[in-house]
Amino acid sequence: MPELERRGLLIILSSPSGVGKSTIARRLCDYDQNIIFSVSATTRKARKGEKNGREYFFLDHSEFDKKVQDYKMLEYAKVFGNWYGTPIDPVLTSIDKGKDVIFDVDWQGGNQIKNSRLGKYVL
Q1: What tens digit of pLDDT does each residue of 25-49 get?
Q2: How far is CA 16 from the centre of its chain?
Q3: What is the rounded CA–CA span in Å between residue 75 and residue 116?
């Protein structure tokens, strides 16, 4: 009998800023190699020591807007004058490979993900 391929799940960690979501997410990723941390995109400038694609995907406003218009953002919001969001393509690639994707988002982002076309994969 052929073995069924496992499809990845979406794991949403949502709470107020500063309570430890990122710490929990990183520990889960360290513990289980099947869990991948979702890297968000932002229009803010990179801070010293940040690397594009590691902490964030750093985009200018027109690039971010194009992704929104092309339905390439799973969730997004404007915070303190900058846009933040989750590019959908890396998430789709990961779950297609059977990897679980963990998100560190606020409650609005969590709701957008749950109500998206990928909501059926939310744990």
Answers
A1: 999 999 999 999 999 999 999 999 9
A2: 17
A3: 8
DSSP state letter for 19: S
113: its two tokens: 């993900």
**In the structure encoding, which two tokens stand for residue 32, read together?**
């289980």
Q: Give residue 37's Cα distance to chain centre.
A: 7
Which residues lie closer than 8 Å to 28 by C-beta, 6 or more apart?
11, 35, 102
Number of neighbours of residue 56 by Cβ within 10 angstroms: 18
CA-based diameter of the chain, in Å? 55
pLDDT above 60 (res 1): no
Cβ contact 10:28 at 8 Å: no
Partners of residue 10 on adjacent β-strands: 101, 122
